Amino acid sequence: MTQYDDYDGLNLILVEDETLVSMDLEATLEEYGHRVIGVASHVERALEHIAGAGRALDAVLLDLTLAGQSARPVAERLERQGVPYVMVTGLDEAQVRQQGFSGRYVPKPYHPEAVREALSSVAADLGRARRVRQAPSPVAPLAVTSPYCASSSCVSR
């Protein structure tokens, strides 16, 4: 299992066009306690999975070249929706950054520990974001007028 602040794993979509790599990555992700909620081998299917997952989606593992086609449309959709992605690619990181990809980077051939570290970082970021979104806003106590309380110091919480 992975070590996250608020939950024990991520809901992930895996976007990879090489079947053996996809199967191996899926097994690795599940071994680390994550849930693979969709697998896609081309851009259109990846976009369908992302749309279908809605708010249940935590992150995406994304190969940047899918059957000779760039995964840029997938990355752009994820960035617009604020969904983090981890690039698992054979492309050089400098080349990837020049193309405008902003996700975390794991080179192929991938090492399971590198994937685990990238997803731990994503989970930590999501944990912080969830804590911020769920933090209760400070509420001032309400003054209560009651026949049982004659003083102005009666406060309801």
Radius of gyration: 22 Å
Uncertain residue segments: 1-7, 139-146
Oligomeric state, counting identical vs distinct chains:
single chain
- Percent in helix: 40-55%
**CATH H-level homologous superfamily name:** Response regulator
Form type? globular
* Pattern of helices and strands: EHEHEEEHEHEHEE
> In the CATH scheme, what's the topology name?
Rossmann fold
Instruction: Give the end-to-end Cα distance, rounded to a whole number of Å.
Output: 40 Å
Strand content: 15-25%
User: What is the number of beta strands?
Assistant: 9
CATH classification class:
Alpha Beta
How does CATH name the architecture?
A: 3-Layer(aba) Sandwich
Q: The biggest beta sheet, please?
A: 5 strands, parallel
Q: Helical region count?
A: 5
The strand order across the widest sheet is 2-1-3-6-7
Keywords: Phosphoprotein
Protein name: Two-component system regulatory protein
Pfam families: Response_reg (PF00072)
Modified residues (4-aspartylphosphate): 63
Topology readout:
Layout: E1 11-15, H1 19-31, E2 35-40, H2 43-53, E3 59-62, E4 65-66, E5 69-70, H3 72-81, E6 85-89, H4 93-98, E7 104-107, H5 112-134, E8 142-143, E9 155-156
Parallel strand pairs: 1-2, 1-3, 3-6, 6-7
Antiparallel strand pairs: 4-5, 8-9
Helix pairs in contact: 2-3
Mind explaining what this structure looks like?
It comes from Oceanicola granulosus (strain ATCC BAA-861 / DSM 15982 / KCTC 12143 / HTCC2516). This is Two-component system regulatory protein. Keywords: Phosphoprotein. The chain has 157 residues and is an alpha/beta fold. The chain has one domain (11-156): Response regulator (Rossmann fold, 3-Layer(aba) Sandwich). It has 5 helices and 9 strands. The strands form 3 sheets. It has a 5-stranded parallel sheet, with helices on both faces. Strand 4 and strand 5 form a beta hairpin. The longest helix is centred in the last third of the chain and has 23 residues, at 112-134.
